[in-house]
Amino acid sequence: MANAKSDVLQGTLDLMVLKTLDAMGGMHGYGIARRIEQVSEDVLRLNQGTIYAALLRLVQKGWIKSAWGVSESNRKAKFYSITRSGRKQLDTEAKNWARISSVIGRLLELSPRS
Amino acid sequence: MFHWLNVAASRIHALFSRRRLDDDFDREVEAHLALIAEENMRRGLTPDEAYSDARRHFGSVTQVKESHRENRGVPQVDTVLRDLQYAARMLRKSPGFTLVAILTLALGIGVNTTLFTAFDAVALKPLPVKNPGNVVRMERWFASGSQGNGQYLFSYREYLDYRDHNRVFSSLIAASWLFTALAELPGENGAIPAGKLTGQLVSENYFSDLGINPILGRTFLPEENRTPGTHPVVVLSYPFWRVQCNRDPQILGKAIRLNDTTFTVVGVTDEQFIGTGNPPRIPDFWAPLMMQAQTVPGQDWLNDPGARWFQFFGRLNPGTGIKQAQAEMTVLTHQFEQAHVPADKTLAVTVERATFFGETNTLQFRLFIALLMLVVGMVLLIACANLANMLLARAANRHKEIAVRLALGASRSRLIRQLLTESVLLSLLGGTVGLLFSIWASRLLWVGIQQALQALMWMNVELVVRMTPDIRVFAYALAVSLITGILFGLAPALQSSKRDVSAALKEEGSALGQHIRKSRLRSFLLAGQVGVSMLLLVTAGLLVRGLIRSETADTGFETKKVFLVNVDLGSERAKAGALYKRVVERLETLPEVRCLTLAERPPMSGTWTPPVRVDSIEGRTLANHVSGSYFDTLGIAIVRGRTFTRLEGTRPEGEKQANVAVVSEAAAQKFWPSQDPIGKRAKLDMDFRGKWVEFEVIGVAKTVRSANLSRLDPSYFYLPTGSAQLNAILIRTDGDPKNAVTPVRTALAALDKDILPGLNMFSLEDGLVRKERLLAKTYAMFAVMLAVLALALAGVGIYGVMSYSVSQRTREIGIRMTLGATQAEVLKSVIVQGLLPVFNGVLLGLVGAAAVSTILKATLVFPGTSDMLFGVSVFDPLTFVGLSCFLGTVALIASAIPARRATRVDPTVALRWE
């Protein structure tokens, strides 16, 4: 049970990271985590460390790549950016997500049988 | 959708850059924390607050790092790598132990790999041809049961028949037995005589179907093997071209005269091709089979169905099995033999994968190899026992570490895996060193084997064998190393991981409690290795005693003044017979030759041991055909009766043989004890198939050592022969033997100029007797080398176990000495306890040695067997007792050093010990 739940969460987090990088260009881990928190209007307040599991998975799959760079505050940090295959993946995943969420949405809107 | 490939690649990559990635991630996490903190400070928090909030916000840094590390690589491999790293660190920490262990293993594994290298070269290596896997050699099995090289020979008529009718081979290839031909090579100023060259006749598909390419010119064309005698062409072998032709790049098209025909060189084979073996020799040249009458004149191999001079190779059709090929070839042979009935029918034809030597799949050869493997396996076993003991001792010293790891929750299997990783790492290191050692040793071994082979087969030819290690040797070394590592590592690993955690942590176990049980396994291992080295030591001791005797062994006949004269008279029988007679007559009249005799077999060059029947006694005896002057020439005294007359020796065809015999004193004693043997009758089975012939004894000769140098001939029958049979010629010279060679050569050259290239003569002392001594030396040398190795290993083992047990007993000894035990008493107790397993081992080894000796002795029942001990009793008390004492002394010294250390123990220190 716990597994199924974390699988969904994993996939979701991965998708969020991909989308963030697609929209914002190169970012470091903190930036990504912060951005996701901001966009969710702090509904999603995560242990920022968990972002690194997602980043590792995405790097391993070749969907994002990383390089050392310098942050706005002149600090050395690792910057991630989306790759071409990552964009393609994002496209498919986003479509999937839209389909599933619309199905779920409709399901949930069904009025109870009277 | 290949992203799983990306994942795998990145994980594997991560395995090998663990440290760098760890650092990388550490810095990344640090930067992350710093970035949160910066923002916090901008919001007005103090640095301390900023950082603690950052840490809270980030989550558990350790957990994130740990999971990152786990997901980055391949966990299983990662564990193995970490185990290896840990093992390497442990080994580096005790370099003394590591060095001894690696050397011990290197010797054990090296000796085994060396033997395997030799076995591989002789029996496993495929021929240097294309796709050697499906090339087979045919072997026939006779109704008479007769064995040997004859089993590999077939006739050309059979070749034609089988080639056209078989459905199992994609090609059938014939290659003749090697022969020699008198040659002249092209020179700047006319032809240069080149002596006798070795040649081989081959079917036209020999080179093409075996896939052998020339480095110069071409190989044979199909039309060169269609009509007899029309295409005088030869292909030269690489070694011949390199040495005799000085790598002449213009050799193609040049003429070589072989016998009386001029041949044209059309090609040279490449360096890799060293012939198709059995025996493994490279001929100087190859000629088309159709040139047989020119290269081997006077014989008709092409039309005579009984002229079996060819080995057959077949390339199996795809999908055809060995069994199917054997069945088909057997049927074809039976059909052929119905049309051309041979003297000895063929029961069956087998095919075997073609290797350099024939007869490597016989039971005898396998038994021989198994025996050798057993002997060198024992050396490895000693090494294993040593290592196991050392590891047990080490494990006992590491019990605290192991207990801590167990207490911290390491599983037992995880610990065993860690310990096995250590032992396997050790054995792999040892195996690598051993492999290097074996590459060197196998060259040495080959020299020894070559000498032994030449002495046994009486061949003056160089055998071409590649001792270079190949993939099989590497695989073998790897397998032996792995097995060894697990073998010597498993018992210690099982035992030390079983340890009771609480007892070990309290440091109680070592002094008194568990000690007894553990030391039983160690004693057993120690006794075992002492036993094995005792066995090897006694065997070597007996062989050395034999070697010493062989140096002074007296043949009983003259060897320095007697020369064996070998002449190659060519292949034409009638011509050879006439020439042989003239050679004998000429030699007899030479002033330097005092005496000349003819013998079917010269002394020490093969035996004939027919069954013999005297009244009701049956047995085997050595026998030989010799001319009447044999006894005079060799200086063997006739003690009763007479030798043969010249008339009894001449046996013109069709006439009845003179059925008389001279027997040795030993034979007379054996068959007619305390009777006068003169006039008595004995029957010999002349062909092992019941062709019994009766002989009348006319004389008794002194017993000598003529079958081999190792012992007096148990029984010998001399039967008459004459110059009609092309026997070996033995001459006895007058005066200084060195002066006899030149006149003989001159006289024979004057007789026929073609004799000289095929002539060689040497005294029995220099030729045959020396080879016998060399053989004894070779056996003894190998045995001594193994025994010294075993002894050294056992010494190290005893020392190791003793010093460990002393260090374990420090506390106990301290107590004893406080209670008033003297140094001598302590010394005695330590040594007695330590030497008990040694004593058991010596007993064990002596029993084993006695068993081996009994087997060795049993082989001497056969009259032709040579006695490797040269008459030393197999239970020679000097060897058995002497070597036991020697081993005892070595054990005593090995245990005295640690024992003395025990007596120096200061009681107060000992009691406080740990």
Description:
The complex is a heterodimer of chains A (114) and B (914). By secondary structure, chain A is α+β, with helices and mostly antiparallel strands. Helix content of chain A is 62%, strand content 14%. Chain A has a single domain (2-109), classed as Arc Repressor Mutant, subunit A (Orthogonal Bundle), CATH 1.10.10.10. Chain A has helices at residues 2-24, 29-39, 51-61, 84-109; strands at residues 27-28, 64-70, 76-82. Chain A has a three-stranded antiparallel sheet. The radius of gyration of chain A is 16 Å and the shape is globular. The model of chain A is unreliable at 1-7 (pLDDT under 50). Chain B has five domains: 3-73, no CATH class; 75-125 and 361-507, no CATH class; 132-354, no CATH class; 512-554 and 765-914, no CATH class; 562-763, no CATH class. Chain B has 27 helices and 24 strands. In chain B, the strands form four sheets. In chain B, strands 15, 16, 17, 18, 19, 20, 21 and 22 form an eight-stranded mixed sheet that branches. In chain B, helix 14 runs antiparallel to helix 15 (471-497), helix 14 packs antiparallel against helix 24 (765-818) and helix 19 (573-589) packs across helix 23. The radius of gyration of chain B is 37 Å and the shape is globular. Chain B starts with a helix and ends with a helix. Classes of the chains: A alpha+beta (114), B alpha+beta (914). Chains A and B meet through helix 2, helix 3 and strand 3 of A and helix 1, helix 2 and helix 4 of B.
Question: What layout of secondary structure does this protein have?
Answer:
The complex is a heterodimer of chains A (114) and B (914).
Chain A: H1 2-24, E1 27-28, H2 29-39, H3 51-61, E2 64-70, E3 76-82, H4 84-109
Antiparallel strand pairs in A: 1-3, 2-3
Chain B: H1 3-16, H2 18-42, H3 47-58, H4 61-72, H5 75-93, H6 95-124, E1 135-142, E2 154-155, H7 156-165, E3 169-176, E4 179-185, E5 192-202, H8 205-210, E6 214-217, E7 233-236, H9 238-243, E8 255-258, E9 261-269, E10 285-288, H10 292-295, E11 308-316, H11 322-339, E12 346-353, H12 363-397, H13 399-407, H14 412-457, H15 471-497, H16 501-505, H17 509-513, H18 515-552, E13 562-567, H19 573-589, E14 593-599, E15 611-614, E16 617-620, E17 622-626, H20 630-634, E18 638-641, H21 646-649, E19 660-664, H22 665-671, E20 681-685, E21 692-701, E22 716-720, E23 728-733, H23 741-751, E24 759-763, H24 765-818, H25 823-858, H26 877-903, H27 907-912
Parallel strand pairs in B: 5-10, 7-9, 17-22, 19-21
Antiparallel strand pairs in B: 1-11, 1-12, 2-11, 3-11, 4-5, 4-8, 6-9, 7-10, 8-9, 13-23, 13-24, 14-23, 15-16, 15-20, 18-21, 19-22, 20-21
